[in-house]
Automatic annotation (TrEMBL):
This is DHA1 family bicyclomycin/chloramphenicol resistance-like MFS transporter. Its main location: membrane. Keywords: Cell membrane, Membrane, Transmembrane, Transmembrane helix, Transport. Residues 31-420 form the Major facilitator superfamily (MFS) profile domain. GO terms for cellular component: plasma membrane. It comes from Homoserinimonas aerilata. GO terms for molecular function: xenobiotic transmembrane transporter activity. Gene3D superfamilies: Multidrug resistance protein D. It is a multi-pass membrane protein. InterPro entries: Efflux_drug-R_Bcr/CmlA, MFS, MFS_dom, MFS_trans_sf, Sugar_transporter_CS. Residues 1-22 are annotated as: Disordered. Belongs to the major facilitator superfamily. Bcr/CmlA family.
Amino acid sequence: MSQTNSIPVILPGDRNDRRPHPGDALSARQRLVYILVLGTLTALGPFTIDLYLPAFPALEGEFSVGAAAIQLTLTGTTIGFGLGQLIVGPWSDKVGRRLPLILATSLHIAASIGAALAPDIAWLAVFRVLQGFGAAAGGVVAMAMVRDLFGGKRLVTMLSRLALVNGLAPILAPVIGSQLLIVMDWRGIFWVLAAYGAFVVVAVSVLIIETLPRHKRHQAGHSTLGARYRALFTDRTFVGVALVGAMSFTGLFAYLSSSSFLFQEVYAFTAQEYGLLFGVNSIGVVIGVQTSSRLMSRLNIGPQWILVVITIVQLAMAGTIMILDQADAGLWGTIVPLWFFITACGFGFPAVQVLALANHGAEAGTAASLLGALNFGLAGLISPIVGVLGVATATPMALVMGCAAIIAIVMVWAVVRPRTVPPLSD
């Protein structure tokens, strides 16, 4: 499919487009193309971070280092991912979406090749930081493109599709990684990531048009980086929602960063059984994202009230894991409440994105970058605490998850203030 037959006669964002939102000019088939390609972009970051999780024990053995050193390569990736988003998002608001995406993803390809050839843990850590930085463009630009094109209830629908991918990708990546380890070693996983990055560059070049036309890059009051950040940081709802989302992701990431050791070494899962566990948990994400988007778009339930409920559920499930773990309830005492915790995360993904972006179309790239940077930056800084506390039981993981949920609850009520959030427009 070429650009010519994948876009309408009036380009989204064209001055002559009189529709309330430019994406209304897209047919159902064209919207499907955007969902598929933008979903691929969104998944690049989570796959870059999580695809090699099942290989942690192998890395530990090959490089003769401890679990904490291996987890630092994961932390480095998330920090690079967060910093990359802070640069790529505002850059995309200034020069358009496609150029930053193509250049950053090219860096990701080069770093993936470097990681595949890394001679020791130090070089692997360096290339992982660069990998994360390069992968940052996909999620930020995809979310900004959706906000360029859509608003109101259709924005809810489109963001829910991206949220589904964004929620599933971290869960499914280890499943795919565990299967790849059957036919290749850990280095092969990084060659796969390099190929994925190359596919993204080709897909963007062929299928995606520029959604931020020149006349929209210098809107009054939003033309400078300072003005865009000021618009975001003076919006109490945006700040609160971004922190709630970051805490929810931190809880999820505490699970992701410790699960390889917990389930493969403590509960003696094989790499494939470990991948199957992630597959089961991914069902919870699907249920959460789809149900949440329907509650918002069809039943007109405010996304802020979804956040109120899911933060309480997350705290309750983290507490349940700790109590059952201390009572020696075994594997089932961990994986059942963990499933409900992950499902609650799925409920929150689209609610966070909708609330954060609904009133910030003029600085969508910057807003998306701050969401991503907070998600991965805070998660990358906080989740290694699990490794410090130890992975011999599920309690350290649950403790970090519970503390993150407590902070999220405080942010919902003290900063977002759900009763003050206006309803979504049509």
